[in-house]
Give the backbone structure.
Amino acid sequence: MEQTAALLRSHGHEVELFTRDSLDIPPGWRGSLRAAASGVYSLAGRKDMRELLRSFRPDLVHAHNVHPLISPAALSACREEGIPVVMTCHNFRLVCPAGILFSQNENCHRCLGGREYWCVLRNCKGSRAISFSYALRNWAHRRFRMFRGNVTHYIALSHFQKTILAGEGFPGERISVLPNMISLPEQNGEPENRKPFALFVGRLSVSKGIQILLEASRRVPEIPVRVAADTSNLAELNLEIPPHVDLLGRKDKAELEALYAQSRFVIVPSLCYEACPMVVLEAMAHGRPVVASRTGSIPELVSEGETGLLFEAGNAADCAEKMKRLWDDPAACRMFGIRARQRAERNHNPEHYYPRLMAIYEAAVLQARESQMAHAGRRGAIQSIAR
């Protein structure tokens, strides 16, 4: 959201941010109840949005995440004020209460087709009460068309994601595919005294494939692996860390950029469906090839044998084989990295992103205008019959 706002401002647009922070939710059961209720429908979110619309009078509202304190009630205020809404779908929250179509260590489609109760039955959030509140929220939003009736145009981050949304009844003609953008760092050649390694950046979780990475690493102990991730949940995962895998902890942006520059390639072993993983774009922007699982949108970002290598999701042996292939062929790594950087410049450069975003905005404004004219025509016909 902040990147999009900065990009728009750099092109002369006026932008106002409307944000709420979940850190403002009071601790304890009262705060949990407030979050659950406001997630379904927030009167405060609707009121605050209406006030902002009337003072700022935008041409368009671009929504990102509205849970839990804003809720789609704010989007209904946009419709009532005649302001078109474009919504970027950063995950699968519109059709999956948990948001990632992943439950009990597997990809899960059980809630699709209006069966949100599976979130409770499978306890997807690890708490029956929280799972129930998430399921209730999705049921209410679907039942009362709180997104479908108030969002003019959707942005999916991949064709894979668009297929899922369209399969659940969201109109395909109102869904545009626009992957994330990424700032491109300067390339100053290879760092001096470089000691290459394979790099993992992300969360330590089953859905991100950390167990697959570790099992694959055991099969290729000659490849040093560095893991840049928050390790606060390490004990509960009960992981056995091989000696050649180095857990670095959380790293800031500058530290991550240095790690990307030092690495030979980046590993993305996700089990869950990724919408448009930023780690892949960051690797490409730094001219690094990617070894990644063939799942979700990843094959749309990583071209097999051109910008990286793909392996069967969940298959540690296949992952290890692809890691070794790249490790043993530095020349191929360099060529893949050059092509990855070129692809990032071509497809994810903010200056290339901007005209595509504006085309979506213009389509949304036109769609909203046509919808309003059709609605006015229906109202006129009904009045004519009444006379």
Observations:
- The chain is about 45% helix and 10% strand.
